[in-house]
Request: fold
Amino acid sequence: MMTDRSEGKLDVWIGHRASDAAIVSAASDRVLSVSCFGSAWPDRHHSVEQTWENALSVRERWTSLDQHYASRMFENLAHGGLGTVFAFRSEPTLGRIFRVTGLDACVLPEKAFRMFSRKSFLLRFSDGTGALTPDGCIVDVRATSYSELRRRLGMPFVLKTEDTVSGAGVYLVDSATGWVKVAQIHQRTLLTAWRLVDGVSLNFHFCVSGDDKVRLFEPSVQLLTPVSGLRLFTFGGSSFDVRDRCSTAALAQASAVATEFTGAIAALGYRGVGGIDVVASAERAWVVDLNPRFQGSSAALALDLRYQDVELADFQRAAFGLLDPAACALPAQTHSTAVVGGQLILSFDGRLPGRAKQRVKAGVYDMTSGQPVHARSFDGRFPLESGQILMLDPVPAGFTLAPGAPLARILYPKGSVLGTSSDRVSDLGKLVTALFDIQYS
Reply:
């Protein structure tokens, strides 16, 4: 089935941040971002509703959808001219909705999604001399001892829950005390345990099309150790300046493993856009995570692709038969970013809960005067001018912040001081000092 991309079509993004949905769907006239995965999701991303400021005609609807209500909503949307339905993850409710309404959606079937999203899925690639993932095993904390895991995996080792998202549910165990704490939390939960591997952490976007062809995008380097810039704040994120942070040999190892792994999951039925995390050294590389969905850095990649007249969302449409694959062919098998330097996540680092005291506007900020000046609302245009940064999803005034909570996302262009070194945070320091006023609750 071919999707009519005519004027007035509405793209629906389920379970995505409004800013990501708007950026990746910028070719569409209208975007609706919906959360329908329980009460925890709206609470976690509540700030989006107040801070996106309707850029690119984004509309928010934070709700926990039951099947009847959701079916009726999608039926009404379809009558009004529905474009494409994208989903952060697959749920039984969504499958029933699509069957009832007859809508096509760019989302893996529920059974396939659950297989690829479970962390234990990676264990099938951990055996033998040509293993693609580190040594690992399934752990029942009630029947497994700390000394047993220490002997097998070394110290420290990593524990993950099956439904890990955005780092939640990942534990680095470096002592018996740490093991006891995790065991107390997950007494009735099966975990996966993994050997900790050393190297540069890279993230690859990929897309498997309907003909099983895999397209790999050039990776970003993950900034796993947040940079302490100022009191109460930390920075982490991803950099597309890969060759400044990763050796040629390590990048070659990572690319080879990524190619083999994505080919293997394509043969198992994977379709669409996804991401994998790879840890690489000059001697070896391992896949350490699979994200069967659009990722946190997808919006940054989408902006860069658009500069080269390629739409990331069209890869997803083509993979599910809603667009001719020839319409979104990559200019090369490995794509090099042209204008986006990277993305940083600004987080609250207080020991106690805090509260944002004032409203911070989203959009483009000019840093050339020594202090941040709001230059314009974000309208999808990139690259930015020299000395500018893009702020998305700033936390709203009055919002209570738990320790570690995100305050905003910052995208910067290639050549920016933010991308030259992990300890160069002077521009971010100016931004934080001038705009964010946090008090302890």
Remarks:
- Residues 1-6, 37-65, 420-424 have pLDDT under 50 and may be disordered.
